[in-house]
Amino acid sequence: METGCNPMELSSVSGFEEDSALNGVEGTDMKDMRLEAEAVVNDVLFAVNSMLVSQSLRCADDVAYINVETREGSRYCLELTEAGLRVVGYAFDQVDDGLQTPYHETVYSLLDTLSPAYRQAFGNALLQRLEALERDGQS
Question: 121 and which of 15, 26, 47, 135 could share a cystine (Cβ 3.0–4.6 Å)?
Answer without folding.
Answer: 47
